[in-house]
Amino acid sequence: MKKTHIAIIGGGLTGLTAAIRAAKQGYNVDLYEAAPRLGGRTQSFFHQPTQTWIDNGPHLLIGAYERIIQLLKEANALQNTMWQDTLSLPLWDERRGHFALKTSPNLPFPLALMRAVQQMPEHGLQIIPSILRLALSIKKEQKGSVLTWMQSANIKEALQRDMIEVLCLGAMNEPMDTADAASFANVLQQAFANHKTARLGWFTAPLSKALIEPLEKHCQQLGVHIHTSSRVQKLLSNEQNCILTTRAGSKTYDKVILATPPSIRNKLLNIEQNITTHAITNVHLWFDEKITLSSPFIGGIDTYGQWFFDISHQFHENNEKSHHLSHLCAVISADTSNKTHAEKVSTILQELQKITGCTHLKAIHQRIITVQAATHLVRPPQTPSVLPKHIIDACEQPISGELPATIESAIMRGEHAILQLLST
Predict the structure, then answer these.
(1) What is the mean pLDDT of residues 52-59?
(2) What is the per-residue pLDDT across 76-132, written as a single tens digit (0 to 9) for each?
(3) Chain-centre distance for alpha carbon 337
(4) Rounded CA gap, 62 and 192, in Å?
(5) CB 355 within 8 A of CB 96
(6) Architecture in CATH for domain 277-376
(7) Which CATH class is domain 5-43+206-276+379-423?
(8) Which of 47, 225, 372, 410 has the fewest C-beta atoms under 10 angstroms from its C-beta?
(9) Confidence of residue 383 (pLDDT cuts 50, 70, 90)
(10) Separation between Cα atoms, residue 4 and residue 156, nearest integer Å
């Protein structure tokens, strides 16, 4: 029998996952990426002043991310990650200094989590009823915003401030008053199911080296034909097949999987639609002295930077040209401020001075990267229920209850697209 010939448009994590899964099912796969390199939002770039590869922004992993763990195993790249033995969420605010939500592995997880929250400063035994109400309400169907959910469940403001708000901004890239409650409940259920899932991890090298290159190599081993710098200009579907046109010409495919941002899908298919996104700003700073955080990452309470990452620690940097530099990065979720670049750097430096205790802190290199459409927000469904024949949609456009934009959800979309392919 003739092999089914499919095209995948988009060389990010969703497209790479779909290509691997399709090739393993015996499909003949062409992968098209408009950029010169694969990776999409999980790309890295070369920073000339420090002679190092760095990510647009750091990524945290949670133990519930089963799909990324499995994919990394298949690509022989799981060694490129580091994991906590048990959950430890380091936090800082100006009034209380450093503290952490840290669970004990010696207790059943529900008790370990309750004790961990209770032991945080300004919580104590009075926080336990709020934890119990939160645990019970997670199991119920949630509607509206996260803030509405917290208020209706009578969750103490201290618990919202020190745990819920930090996790909401990190997972949803959206504040509690607009973030979808059903999706956030899904995040909490996955993240806090047990000791195994309730732990955090990170990549020990830039994403291009730790994630994308191993997946690209795996694709090539499976026979996937990868076309970079190949922007799809036109996509037509008829009763028999699809015709895909790039600058190099037109080709015919039995099926096409769209693993692009929704805006690209809409342009190719002439779909009119409003798309809601939020930006994430990453402020990279380098210092010519040994500057370290007390943990590989720290969540900020009431700070401009929501997360602070010790990149040198995470990457175990040993590049001869950069090992003498300390590299820190602050992540500003849902960045809607009107601050100039200089103001952003100044604000982050002031916060880092307080977090590290180094009042003289001065960066010798800086780089601000704002990803404008970093997250497609959880919103009511807008995607047309019926796409043209032979076209499968794997674009990121989560609806209420679905996981927001994460590495895990990107992989899940790629795998779901192949399940749809197999069912046709």
Answers:
(1) 91
(2) 999 999 999 999 999 999 999 999 999 999 999 999 999 999 999 999 999 999 999
(3) 21
(4) 10
(5) no
(6) Alpha-Beta Complex (3.90)
(7) alpha beta
(8) 372
(9) low
(10) 56
What backbone torsions phi and psi does residue 101 show, to the nearest 5 degrees?
-90, 100
- SS3 call for 361: coil
Q: Tokens 């420090």 sit at which residue? A: 50
**What residue spans in the chain does CATH classification 3.50.50.60 cover?**
5-43+206-276+379-423
Structure-block tokens of residue 58: 């750091």
Cβ atoms of 378 and 180 within 8 Å: the answer is yes
In single-letter form, the type of residue at position 31 comes to L
Distance CA 261, CA 9 (A): 10
Domain with CATH 3.90.660.20 in the chain: 277-376
Beta-bridged to residue 145, according to DSSP, are 180
Q: Strand 249-253's sheet: what is its strand order?
A: 234-237, 242-246, 249-253
Return the closest-CA partner of residue 218 out of 72, 408, 15, 364. Answer: 72
Summarised one tens digit per residue, pLDDT across range 129-163 is: 999 999 999 989 999 999 999 999 999 999 999 99
CA dihedral 69, 112, 98, 299 (to 10 degrees): 40
Measured in degrees and rounded to the nearest 5, phi and psi for residue 103 equal: -95, 150
Let me know: does 179 contact 160? Beta carbons within 8 Å. Answer: no
Question: From start to end of 204-288, where are the E strands?
Answer: 225-227, 234-237, 242-246, 249-253, 255-258, 277-287
Nearest to 230 by CA among 17, 36, 30: 36
For residue range 232-276, list pLDDT tens digits in order. Answer: 999 999 999 999 999 999 999 999 999 999 999 999 999 888 888
71 to 68, 219, 395, 407, 416: CA distances (angstroms) = 5, 12, 19, 11, 14
Angstrom CA distances, 189 to 30, 140, 202, 361, 410, stand at 37, 11, 20, 40, 19
- Write out pLDDT tens, residues 185-243: 999 998 899 999 999 999 999 999 999 999 999 999 999 999 999 999 999 999 999 99
